[in-house]
């Protein structure tokens, strides 16, 4: 896996997302769609229904960063 500083738009990355209610992190694949310095925007690839549910639950009510 490449260090974050070397990711470019269009690169595919493996992500590990930790949630307090999960014993182990969600292991996801995503493509970089946005980069500004060390801020990244990802498009998740091939999410299962359970992964979508966990992400929606976590992101609900969070503020969008511009």
Describe the structure.
With 66 residues, this protein is of the alpha+beta class. The protein is 17% helix and 36% strand. The protein has 1 helix and 3 strands, in the order βββα. 0% of the residues are buried. The model has no long low-confidence stretch (mean pLDDT 85).
**Overall mean confidence score, pLDDT:** 85
For the report, how would you describe the main beta sheet?
3 strands, antiparallel
Record the strand order, biggest sheet.
Answer: 1-2-3
Which stretches are low in confidence, meaning pLDDT under 50 for 5 or more residues running? Answer: none
Strand proportion: 35-45%
- The figure for the number of domains is 1
The amount of helix comes to 10-25%
Q: Count every beta strand, where a strand is a DSSP E run of 2 or more residues.
A: 3
Structural class computed from helices and strand pairing: alpha+beta
Q: Name the helix and strand elements from N-terminus to C-terminus, one letter apiece.
A: EEEH
- What would you call the shape? globular
| Radius of gyration (Å) | 13 Å
Question: What's the tally of helices?
Answer: 1
**CA(first)-CA(last) distance:** 26 Å
Which tags fit this structure?
66 residues, alpha+beta, 17% helix
What's this entry about, in short?
By secondary structure, the protein is an alpha+beta fold. Helix content is 17%, strand content 36%. The model has no long low-confidence stretch (mean pLDDT 85).
Question: How is this fold's topology laid out?
Answer:
Elements (H helix, E strand, L loop, with lengths): L11 E6 L8 E11 L2 E7 L3 H11 L7
């Amino acid at each position: 896996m490449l260090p974050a500083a070397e990711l470019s738009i269009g690169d595919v990355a493996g992500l590990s997302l930790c949630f307090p209610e999960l014993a182990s992190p969600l292991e996801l694949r995503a493509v970089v769609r946005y980069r500004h310095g060390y801020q990244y925007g990802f498009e998740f690839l091939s999410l299962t229904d359970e992964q979508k549910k966990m992400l929606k639950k976590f992101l609900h009510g969070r503020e969008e960063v511009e």
